[in-house]
Predict the 3D structure of the following.
Amino acid sequence: IDGKPNSIGGFTPERVALVVPIRPGSQAQAESLLAAGPPFDPSEFDLVSHAVFVTEREVVFLFEGSARAFTEHLAEAQVVWEAAESWLPLIDGRLRLGLQAYAWRR
């Protein structure tokens, strides 16, 4: 895992994926919600990159940067929580957090 040492079991991941299961038939609506980009400026959240992948059954938000700084900004950003409300009708199950287990770059 790429990251920085911390006091809780080894490393803080620098890449985190939020997996959001969506209801069947809601892929187009999810893509529509994503069309305008994130409801925040990624550079202000200490992110290096941010990407979103959509399938017919889930949306995967990938965040790369300082995990600690990002989560602190996220917790305080009212605009993010307001935008999240529009996702509620699409969500079909429990959100899952994916931590990076492997990466390869040239």
Summary: The mean pLDDT is 85. The first strand starts at residue 3 and ends at 6. The helical segments are 27-34, 67-76, 78-85. The two ends are 17 Å apart (CA to CA).
